[in-house]
Design goal:
This is MobC family plasmid mobilization relaxosome protein. This protein has helices at about 20-35, 40-50, 60-85, 90-115. By secondary structure, the protein is mainly alpha-helical. The protein folds into two domains: about 15-50, no CATH class; about 60-115. The chain is elongated.
């Protein structure tokens, strides 16, 4: 069975040519690619006021979120041990030192990302 034909108002029959500087085009292209859509779709959504998709998470940010999840897991395990009445679990000092190292690493990554964004 064939696909139903679009109504005339649904057809994209009108072409609009726009002149812009190289810098403007680079900004437009970067905005569209950050959202994972084409330049024409980006322009259509901006002009019509439709909602834009959420920004894609960068690989570095995804790895940062994974590390934060691991830290949260470690903290939950330590909290459980404390609530069970273990005052000084043998691995507590090592785990806390590891958490501190990971947090320091994450802080430095965030600072690097902020510096590169400027």
């Amino acid at each position: 069975m064939a696909r139903p034909k679009k109504k005339i108002r649904e057809l994209k029959a009108i072409r609009v040519n726009v002149r812009m500087t190289v810098d403007e085009y680079l900004i437009l292209s970067q905005n569209a690619s950050t959202l994972g859509i084409t330049i024409p779709d980006y322009i259509r959504k901006r002009v019509t006021g439709k909602a834009l998709p959420r920004k894609r998470i960068l690989l570095e940010d995804r790895q940062l979120f994974i590390e934060l999840g691991r830290i949260g897991n470690n903290i939950n395990q330590l909290t459980k041990k404390v609530h069970l009445g273990m005052k000084h679990p043998p691995m507590l000092i090592n785990q806390l030192a590891e958490l501190k190292n990971i947090l320091d690493m994450l802080k430095s990554n965030i600072v690097k990302s902020d510096c590169q964004a400027d």
